[in-house]
Structure formats: C-alpha cells, structure tokens
Specification:
With 331 residues, the protein is of the alpha+beta class. It folds into four domains: 118 residues, Ribosomal protein L10, N-terminal RNA-binding domain (Alpha-Beta Plaits, 2-Layer Sandwich), CATH 3.30.70.1730; 63 residues, Molybdopterin biosynthesis moea protein, domain 2 (Alpha-Beta Complex), CATH 3.90.105.20; 46 residues, no CATH class; 67 residues, no CATH class. Helices cover 47% and strands 15% of the residues. The chain has a five-stranded antiparallel beta sheet with strand order 2-3-1-11-12, sandwiched between helices. The protein has a three-stranded antiparallel beta sheet with strand order 6-8-7, with helices on one face. The longest helix is centred in the middle third of the chain and has 21 residues. It starts with 7 loop residues before the first helix and ends with a helix.
Length: 331
C-alpha cells in the first residue's frame, strides 16, 4: 500500500493551530472572504487583547479540529461550518459577546460587480451631484430613470436596482459607487461558534437586546408574582412574604379584637370612633365633653354622606361593636 507523505510544515501548522485552540474557552470559525488585507489588519487591532484571529487553509483547520476531539468534546462539529476563506477566531468572551464584537467591526464597502447583494438596493428620487453629460447614459443603462432638471441630473422616481440575494451587475456597481452607495458589508462573518460542547450558529447569537431585556424583565416579574402567590421562600421573596404575613396577622388581630403592643393603639382608636358614632345617636344622654368632641368631629368631616351610604354604614355596625361602644361610653 502506498503511503502519502505529509509536508513537515503542515504537521507543524496543525500542531500550532491545535495548541492555540486549547488556550481559548470559545472557538469560532469565520469566513474572511472579500476582506482586504488592510481592513483585516484593522479588525485585528480593534479586537486585540480580546479576540485572536488566525487565517489558515481549510484542510489544516479541519485536521486541527480532529486532533482535539478527545480533549474538547464535540469540537469536530465545527468542521461542518467551514466555508469560503476561513479563519479561527479564538477568545474567552462568551459566544454572544463575541458575535457582538465581530459585528461591530463590519463596515460598508463599494461593490465591484458579481457580489451577492446583502439587502435591497433602493435608489430614491431626487437630485444627484452630477452635471449633464455622459453620466446620463450610465445611469439609464444601469436602470435608473434619469433626466435633466435645472442644470442637474435628477432621478425621477424611487427605483429598486437590485433585490436582496441577487448578484450585482458590474455596470450597476460602477453607478452605485459614483452615487456613493456602498452596499457590500465587509467584516468577519462567524459561521459557527463552539463553547463547552455546544455549537452556536449566527442565528442563535443574533438577538435583539432591547426585546430580550424586556422579555427577561417580564419573566422576572411573573416569577416573583407566582412565588409570592404560592408562598415560595427565596432570597428575594422572604422579606415581602414576612411583610405580607405581618399585615395579615395584624388584620386578623384587629378583626378579632386581640390585644397586643401593635394592636392596642389601633383598637383604642377603633373603639373611640365607634363610641363617637353611637353617641351621635343619643344626643340627649351626652355630657358637655362628648358633645364638644362630636361637634369637632363633624367639623373635620369633609362632606355629609348621602342617606344611602349612611344606611350601609349602619348595617355594618355589629352587635358586638355596639356593645363595645356603649361600654366605652358608660364605663
């Protein structure tokens, strides 16, 4: 059987890649196709200290992942995300922060022609910076309804030049550049991210932070309400549960007339109010002091309640309360 000799430099490179990967908690594969060398260098500088980028051949990266199968469970699945011109992106940031960091490095660039359009290209009607000349025919050949108005070249109506997913024709790309419309997004495109045996796709990491925080806040409120309802004790619920229990105990004590340090003053105030209420019904049996108190009380009352409300309040006075009030009056 013939043996295939592997170049020493390839073996050495695979070892270097495998070693670099073992030094990072999070390992990602990125497609760096189309990133000019100066811009890639700028991205490295922006991410320095937090993210390491190693561009290498697809086959070498795949071999390095295979070597790490035993030490990093599931990492070989990253090989499924190798597409385009690839690079290792190594970091200790969590996958979501890594995605946010790499997205922040992306910039707009002019199209050269032949690229897949990442979004609809809509040219709006209005003036252009061009004077009448050959530019008119260039715009029209690109599909733009151009005319001359007031000594300037204008676009007569909004025009969808290229739809998302379509290739940008070279002629259109040249016109877009002249109009200073840069449709191409240049930057690191993460294709797969590995952490602790899990593989994340870009779709997993692309989240709306405002919506996420809103939903998280709503979930916290709902769980807190549920915990309070079922009296589930946690570090967060223990204090409000004690306050709730204390208030309920106080209500029971007040309703039952149980005398404690906390209810004594409240029960006296309640009895005093009931006494004055009963006293107002037998004015002929009152002494001058009680009459004065009733007069003062009436002055403090904001308005006279309707007869219907009075009847409702009279119904609420129980026989026990009446007896208690009379006892306080004549005791």
């Amino acid at each position: 059987m013939a043996t295939v000799e592997v170049s020493e430099w390839k073996v050495r490179k695979v070892e270097e890649l495998a070693t670099a990967v073992t030094e990072s908690q999070v390992v990602a594969i990125a497609d760096v196709k189309g990133i000019p060398a100066p811009q890639l260098q700028h991205i490295r500088q922006r991410l320095r200290g937090r993210v390491r980028i190693i561009v290498s051949k697809k086959s070498l990266i795949q071999h390095s992942l295979t070597r790490l199968t035993e030490s990093r469970e599931g990492i070989e699945q990253l090989a499924d995300h190798l597409s385009g011109q690839v690079a290792f992106v190594l970091t200790d940031l969590n996958p979501f922060k890594l995605y946010k960091e790499t997205e922040s490095t992306k910039t707009k660039a002019p199209a050269k022609g032949g690229e897949v359009c990442p979004e609809d290209i809509l040219v709006k009607e209005g003036d252009t910076p061009f004077k009448p000349g050959p530019i008119m025919s260039e715009l029209q050949r690109a599909g733009l309804p151009a005319s001359i108005d007031g000594g300037k070249v204008v676009i007569k109506k909004d025009t969808l030049l290229v739809k998302k997913g379509e290739k940008i024709p070279r002629q259109v790309a040249q016109v877009l550049t002249r109009l200073e419309i840069y449709p191409i997004i240049v930057g690191l495109n993460l294709t797969g991210v590995y952490e602790n045996g899990l593989i994340f796709s870009p779709e997993d990491l692309r989240i709306d932070e405002v919506e996420f925080m809103s939903r998280l806040s709503d979930a916290i409120c709902r769980s807190m309400n549920l915990a309070m309802f079922v009296h589930y004790v946690t570090d967060r619920t223990i204090e409000p549960l004690i306050v709730q229990a204390e208030q309920r105990a106080l209500n029971v004590a007040m309703a039952s007339g149980i005398l404690t340090k906390k209810t004594a003053e409240l029960l006296l105030q309640k009895a005093h109010g009931q006494m004055l209420s009963l006293s107002s019904r037998i004015p002929d049996a009152l002494d001058d002091e009680l009459k004065e108190k009733l007069t003062t009380r009436k002055k403090r009352e904001p308005e006279e309640k309707p007869d219907e409300e009075k009847k409702e309040e009279e119904k609420e006075v129980s026989e026990e309360e009446a007896a208690s009030g009379l006892g306080a009056l004549f005791g």
